[in-house]
UniProtKB/TrEMBL annotation, chain A:
UniProt-listed PANTHER family: ALIPHATIC SULFONATES IMPORT ATP-BINDING PROTEIN SSUB (PTHR42788:SF13), TAURINE IMPORT ATP-BINDING PROTEIN-RELATED (PTHR42788)
Name of the protein: NitT/TauT family transport system ATP-binding protein
Similarity field: Belongs to the ABC transporter superfamily.
Keyword field: ATP-binding, Nucleotide-binding, Transport
Family annotation (InterPro entries): AAA+_ATPase (IPR003593), ABC_transporter-like_ATP-bd (IPR003439), ABC_transporter-like_CS (IPR017871), ABC_transporter_ATP-bind (IPR050166), P-loop_NTPase (IPR027417)
GO molecular function, one term: ATP binding
ABC transporter domain boundaries: 12-245
Source organism, top-level taxon: Bacteria
Matching Gene3D superfamilies: P-loop containing nucleotide triphosphate hydrolases
Automatic annotation (TrEMBL), chain B:
Pfam families registered for this protein in UniProt: BPD_transp_1
Origin organism lineage: Bacteria, Pseudomonadati, Pseudomonadota, Alphaproteobacteria, Hyphomicrobiales
Transmembrane segments: 46-65, 95-120, 132-154, 160-182, 213-235, 255-277
Keyword tRNA-binding tagged: no
Keyword tags: Cell membrane, Membrane, Transmembrane, Transmembrane helix, Transport
The name this protein goes by in its record: NitT/TauT family transport system permease protein
Membrane topology note: Multi-pass membrane protein
Domain of life: Bacteria
Family: Belongs to the binding-protein-dependent transport system permease family.
Subcellular location: Cell membrane
Classification via PANTHER family: ABC TRANSPORTER PERMEASE PROTEIN HI_0355-RELATED (PTHR30151:SF20), ALKANE SULFONATE ABC TRANSPORTER-RELATED, MEMBRANE SUBUNIT (PTHR30151)
Length: 268, 289
């Protein structure tokens, strides 16, 4: 089985998306207000915004975990209504590995759930582990792994289904700074190789600009897309000198200015 | 056999409570040299036996010195001798109590786990049943024993019912708490993979709740023994509680103690059997460390 092969990216199209939540005391809270968005096949789109801006809600909606109040989400022309598209893979902030399963069995969980041939996918799982630098860790248990290693396993678990759309919800938010840096670089390398569509939610301006083809800046509640920024920097990008790149600095400044204008960041 | 006098079910409660909370309380100090550590581990392993032995020895020595009659306080040696001598009698009554305990506990599992599932999955059911269950728990079950005899007669039925009633609560609570303490994101994860609720239950909810379920069961089985014996105290023709009452009536304090030892042994053995099954079924978070 050829595992290193590219994955056909999915196309996402969102129109007029609205999400209101009802709080405990029956107050309607507008989390997302009229989002229109098209994500091209094979592009890497990052969404940045302050906490509570609804960016994670956006991901849950696209993942089909939450029902929209209004509007449409289509993945490869298939309308998503409270039911996940079969071609998605999700990586959450915490690794969510099942501690009673080995690393290999954790990666094979989606295969089991989809009633596919588990045995046939073992070589593929092992190849994914090799690619994230965890060769031979298949029989270990999550408790034997560091935080960064565990998140790598979580990424392998999302990738074993060859997802046309990879949804990542602050995947490096719980990692220490050095591990995070390494993971950012590794993710770029992996995505360049696979070429699938990625929707990457983060509050880190630096990682959004570094990784993405396009950065969507969201305003605080109600969440709207305040800026749609195309990042025009050649790849592969290098984390070590990205910060000295004038283009990179320009993008980061622009996003910061938006946040300052909205009072998310207050300049002193 | 005599050792079980010290290891009464009550003594095991803190451990069981910790198991109910779903935690394994193992601590290994890092900076201790290996040899010292090993020595300490040996000490730790046998410390309970050594302490028990010391107390029994003290008992054995002090009773003749104090001049107490055998009717008041027999020596451990006399009790052990009596256990050996009357083993068939103890075993016969022991089997009756064992049957009552297992039946009561088994019913507790068979009814408690589905009840917990219903409480977990149905909010209306939960708001109707959960408060009643907690209220019922405040009623001392032991106080129901005479009523149960009144309704169910002198046979094994009231004993099983009492053991069941006492076992039910910890099993239900353990299961509900285990199911509720799951990270919600895990459910999102399996749903994003297209899992049905049944798949999520089988692959994630149940295995994640197992440590708590076993914690509840371990508390329940110790309590079931108490339930069955109390039932026998009230009205019975067989069982270890009955044997003890008979011994009491005949001022046979040695047999009385032998019965206590047998009851304790029963509880401890069942507790450890359950712990053994748990160690085979449940993967503890910290065993791999």
């Amino acid at each position: 089985m050829n595992v290193a092969s590219r994955i056909a990216g999915a196309r996402v199209s969102i129109s007029g998306l609205v999400k209101t939540y009802q709080t405990r005391d029956d107050v309607d809270v507008l989390a997302l207000d009229n989002i229109d968005l098209t994500i091209e096949r094979g592009s890497f789109v990052a969404v940045v915004g302050p906490s509570g801006c609804g960016k994670s809600t956006l991901l849950s909606l696209v993942a089909g975990l939450v029902e929209a109040s209004d509007g449409r989400i289509e993945i490869d022309d298939q309308h998503i209504v409270n039911r996940p598209h079969p071609k998605i893979g999700v990586v959450f902030q915490s690794d969510l590995l099942l501690y009673w399963r080995t690393v290999l069995d954790n990666i094979l969980l989606p295969i089991e759930i989809k009633h596919l041939d588990v045995k046939r996918h073992i070589p593929k799982a092992e190849e994914l582990l090799r690619q994230v630098g965890l060769k031979g860790f298949g029989n270990k248990y999550p408790s034997e792994l560091s935080g960064g290693m565990r998140q790598r396993v979580a990424i392998c678990r999302a990738l074993i289904q060859e997802p046309g759309l990879l949804l990542m919800d602050e995947p490096f938010g719980a990692l220490d700074a050095l591990t995070r840096e390494q993971m950012i670089m590794d993710l770029q390398e992996m995505w360049t190789r696979l070429g699938n569509t990625v929707l990457f939610i983060t509050h880190g301006i630096d990682e959004a600009v570094f990784l993405a083809d396009r950065v969507l800046v969201m305003s605080p509640r109600p969440g709207r897309i305040a800026l749609d920024l195309t990042i025009d920097m050649p790849r592969p990008r290098r984390w070590s000198n990205a910060h000295e790149n004038p283009g990179y600095q320009g993008y980061v400044r622009k996003i910061r200015e938006i946040f300052e204008a909205q009072g998310v960041l207050v300049a002193h | 056999m005599a050792r079980s006098n010290v290891l009464k079910p009550e003594a095991l409660k803190p451990d069981a409570r910790e198991a109910l909370a779903g935690r394994g309380g193992k601590t290994a100090p890092m900076a201790v040299p290996v040899r010292k550590k090993r020595k300490r581990r040996v000490l730790e392993r046998y410390s309970a036996i050594m302490l028990a032995g010391f107390i029994l020895l003290l008992w054995q020595i002090l009773v003749p010195l104090s001049g107490l009659s055998e009717f008041i306080l027999p020596t451990p040696a006399a009790i052990v001798a009596r256990i050996v001598e009357d083993f068939p009698l103890l075993a016969m009554h022991g089997y009756v109590t064992l049957f009552e305990v297992l039946a009561g506990f088994g019913l507790g599992v068979l009814i408690g786990v589905p009840l917990a599932l219903a409480i977990f999955y149905s909010p209306p059911f939960q708001s109707a049943v959960y408060p009643l269950l907690v209220a019922l728990q405040t009623v001392p079950k032991v106080a129901l024993a005479p009523l149960l005899v009144l309704y169910l007669g002198y046979g094994w039925a009231p004993k099983i019912t009492l053991a069941f009633l006492i076992a039910l609560f910890p099993i239900v609570i353990g299961t509900v708490v285990g199911l509720q303490s799951l990270d919600r994101n895990l459910v999102d994860l399996t749903r994003s993979m297209g899992a049905s609720e049944w798949q999520t239950f089988r692959k994630v909810r149940l295995p994640a709740a197992l440590p708590n379920i076993f914690g509840g069961c371990k508390v329940a089985i110790s309590l079931s023994v108490i339930g069955a014996v109390i039932g026998e105290y009230v009205a019975a023709e067989r069982g270890l509680g009955y044997l003890q009452l008979q011994a009491n009536a005949q001022f046979d304090t040695t047999l009385n103690f032998a019965s206590v030892a047998a009851i304790s042994a029963l509880g401890v053995t069942l507790f450890f059997i359950l712990s053994f099954i748990e160690s085979k079924v449940v993967f503890r978070r910290d065993t791999a460390r």
